[in-house]
Write a structure and sequence with these properties.
Largest sheet: 8 strands, mixed
Radius of gyration: 21 Å
CATH topology of the largest domain: TIM Barrel
CATH superfamily of the largest domain: Metal-dependent hydrolases
CATH architecture of the largest domain: Alpha-Beta Barrel
Helix content: 25-40%
Strand content: 15-25%
Strand order of the largest sheet: 3-2-1-4-14-15-16-17
Mean pLDDT: 97
Shape: globular
Number of helices: 15
Structural class: alpha/beta
Low-confidence stretches: none
């Protein structure tokens, strides 16, 4: 790869909404010089970015790309293509929707071998501990080996609908957190109490109810709140680090805030659909908006925006979980697949509905779409930074244009979205990974898939 001189990039300077226009040189995929003006020198390709807003490449720390095992829903090729289209340059894939799940070093090596050469973006991986593998004699050894191999953390559930990756009982979860504390590993937790949701679901289903409101009632706010309270106590007791995935309610955010004040090593993420939609939208749209946890109220959405702005919720993830439309329309809310095709929506939504509507600053936009996740998952400053020595990952946005969302345009296998026909201010023009153009709105996706595995700590 030749050296590349990129000219006229409008970048944030790290103070609220302030920007400056700079030139920068990329050599061997990393930033080597960033200045207000750089003159042409020998053997250097020139790319003029035309004063487009240029942000660090997005990091989506919660995707389900399903390779190998459930590739009829999504795979690394199609999922990462959607990420690149949305300005995401690094994804962190979950361990639970692969067969076999990433619960041992053997399964990790199997997954890495299969996905190699199939990603437009760079990728890190979560390991996991499920109820299935907890009963194995060597679960602690599996955690040790996975952590040493560079996974960013371990996904656990207090409620799971997957027979291949079952949830942990409370005493099992505490033992896993205790061991994580010993090896200084991070636990990423799906917080919904099985002991609350399962009996409610059985009761509601027995009454013959089959609609979005019934599904919502089966997964009340209380289930998330109590699960977060429980794991927070475990983390405090054992000195472990925990991360709460897809936080959906204001009360849950308040618990995280209280834990942070009490010096618990805790972080949380939320998703665009929890910021944008309510239970009323779910009732109207149906299973297209079916997720776990479910979307809540307008007040909850407002509280989540406030929590993002104040740093209580650390960053945004998509919880991308795509599937063909037939799996969303089975005839029953209970069997319709739960998940949204969302990795390509994160930056367009937050730029338009967050930054442009003055809910967050440009600085906060960078933090919640890139920097904070990179720091939490041990890949900063390789990723998440616009600085010398960092990977030259960046996304260019035309602030004077708009983007209209249509599911049929998604390269994902999930070609539907609750954001259908939404018009967002700003349009992603180009996405670069290590200085390589991987997406352009004019030419589409790159012909090559150059994404590579990124170990924690690299």
């Amino acid at each position: 790869m030749t050296n590349i001189l990129f000219k006229n990039a409008k970048i944030p300077v790290g103070i609220e909404n302030e920007t400056e226009t700079v030139d920068f040189i990329v050599e061997d995929g990393v930033f080597v010089e960033i200045e207000k003006s750089i003159q042409l020198f020998k053997d250097c390709e020139i790319v003029d970015l035309g004063n487009l807003l240029t942000l660090p490449g997005g990091i989506d720390p919660h995707v389900h790309f399903d390779t190998p095992g459930f590739e009829e829903r999504e795979d690394f090729d199609s999922g990462s293509a959607f990420s690149a289209m949305g300005g995401i340059t690094t994804v962190i894939d979950m361990p639970c929707t692969s067969i076999p799940p990433v619960t041992s070093i053997k399964n990790l090596e199997n997954k890495l071998k299969i996905i190699s050469g199939h990603s437009y973006t760079d990728y890190a991986l979560w390991g996991g501990v499920s109820g299935n593998c907890f009963n194995e004699e060597n679960w602690q050894g599996n955690m040790n080996e996975l952590w040493e191999s560079g996974v960013v953390g371990f996904k656990t559930y207090s409620l799971s609908g997957m027979y291949t990756f079952t949830h942990l009982l409370p005493d099992e979860l505490e033992k896993v957190i205790e061991h994580a504390g010993k090896i200084r590993a991070l636990i990423g937790h799906h917080a919904e109490c099985a002991e609350i949701v399962i009996p409610l679901t059985e009761e509601i289903m027995s009454e013959g109810k089959n609609n979005p409101r019934a599904y919502s009632l089966s997964r009340p706010e209380e289930a998330e709140v109590e699960a977060i309270k429980r794991i927070t106590k475990f983390a405090e007791k054992h000195g472990a680090a925990i991360h709460i995935v897809h936080v959906s309610s204001g009360k849950s955010a308040a618990i995280i805030r209280k834990a942070l004040i009490e010096s618990v090593n805790i972080s949380g993420e939320t998703c665009p659909h929890y910021l944008a939609f309510t239970i009323e939208d779910f009732i109207e749209k149906g299973s297209i908006l079916k997720t776990a946890p479910v979307v809540k109220t307008k007040k909850d959405s407002q509280k989540l925006w406030e929590s993002l702005k104040k740093g209580v919720i650390s960053f945004i993830a998509s919880d991308h979980a795509a599937c063909p439309i037939e799996q969303k329309k089975t005839g029953s809310i209970w069997t319709d697949y739960s998940g949204i095709s969302g990795t390509g929506i994160v930056i367009p939504y937050l730029y338009s509905e967050g930054y442009r509507k003055n809910k967050i600053s440009l600085l906060k936009l960078v933090e919640i779409t890139s920097q904070n996740a990179a720091k939490r998952f041990g890949i900063f400053p390789t990723k998440g930074a616009f600085k010398k020595g960092s990977d030259a990952d960046f996304v260019c946005i035309d602030e004077n244009n708009t983007a209209v969302i249509h599911g049929n345009d998604f390269p994902s296998k999930g070609k539907f979205t609750p954001f259908e026909s939404f018009e967002f201010k700003g349009k992603i023009k180009k996405t670069f990974l290590r200085g390589n153009l991987i997406y352009s709105d004019e030419s589409g996706l790159s012909s090559g898939k150059i994404g590579r595995f990124l170990k924690r700590g690299e």
